[in-house]
What we know:
Elements: E1 5-16, E2 19-31, E3 36-40, H1 47-54, E4 62-70, E5 73-74, H2 80-86, E6 91-94, H3 98-101, H4 108-121, H5 138-150, H6 156-164, H7 172-185, E7 190-193, H8 202-214, E8 220-224, H9 228-234, E9 237-242, E10 245-251, H10 252-257, H11 262-274, E11 317-319, E12 322-324, E13 334-335
Parallel strand pairs: 3-8, 3-9, 6-7, 7-8
Antiparallel strand pairs: 1-2, 1-4, 4-5, 9-10, 10-12, 11-12, 11-13
Helix pairs in contact: 4-7, 5-7, 7-8
This protein binds adenosine-5'-triphosphate and magnesium ion (MG).
Amino acid sequence: MSAFLRVSNLHVYFDTPQGVVRANNGVNLEARPGESLGIMGESGCGKTVLFLSMLRLQQPGRITAGSITLDGRDITQLPERDVERIRGRDIALVPQNQATALNPAYTVREQLAEAIVVRERGGSLGSVLGRRGSRMDGEALEEVRRVFRELGFADDRLMGRLLQSYPHELSGGMRQRVLIAMALLLRPRVLIADEPTTALDRATRAQSLAMLRRLNGALTMLVVSHDLDAIASTCGRVAVMYAGRIVESGPAGEVLSDPRHPYSRLLISAQRRTRGEPLPTMFADTANLVDVPPGCSFHPICPEVMPQCLVHEPAESKVGGVRVACHLYDGEAAPC
Length: 336
Ligand SMILES: Nc1ncnc2c1ncn2[C@@H]1O[C@H](COP(=O)(O)OP(=O)(O)OP(=O)(O)O)[C@@H](O)[C@H]1O
Ligand SMILES: [Mg+2]
């Protein structure tokens, strides 16, 4: 099947007093219908900016070049009114910070009801809350139960309690579940889970990923996680991001067991050591997104640096089933 979500040469810049931050600096990425793509990369490499750009919510960041196409339509060029229709209903984002992503003033029931209203009548999440329209009738309640059952939460009594709760009364794992349910109620074609396991303990983390696994095949998923086992069991393909670019992508089994890019090798071995805990940054300090070095941006710290790495930015090549942007493979690989 061909890609229906495709990011090509995406550049997203932020103007700051320190200079221009190149948060996305030539991202290439694609996802096919129904596939799960894991995205790995240290803090600050540009994952969240990439997702926000897919919803055109990257401001004050500027999309300066490149495209993001969904079914061939370039989201970066659409009028705002059309992008509003894409948000939530085509592409839904489960945001990174579950502790603050829900509205503290409304019950879970009201917030889930809002997702259904937004889906049926349009608008955006957060704009409908508190209006009469966001009550939940019997049919909507049954749909909510069904979504929670899909997520592995089947106890009706607990469900009743959950719906009456305010966000602060819930555990991190439960808030995560509510956020995923809310996204699913929008019936998106693409679900982005931006670090669905951060700030959760190991057991809850496993539960949260098992939830996503249940959705495999039903919709396209982009999942950021530091947990290699979780990525391996949830995602068919993996992309590794460094300093605003995807440096390697391919089948999860191949990339995780035999990473080709020197950065992927370091990242994956470090993540094996931390067993799924978010990494203390390895290179983020050196991956300066303001003064991006010429050539390959990883060259200042690459253990396999060669003279051409200082001068030429590596193009992507195909090595086996994997795409990799590294001069090590210049001679032996077919350009993509
Ligand atoms: N509003 C902003 N203004 C200036 N710089 C920004 C802004 N938002 C993001 N950035 C910068 O863009 C870069 C990428 O940030 P992003 O949040 O996408 O990283 P990330 O990969 O999601 O990191 P994490 O794993 O910590 O969530 C960082 O250098 C960040 O400082
Ligand atoms: Mg992030």
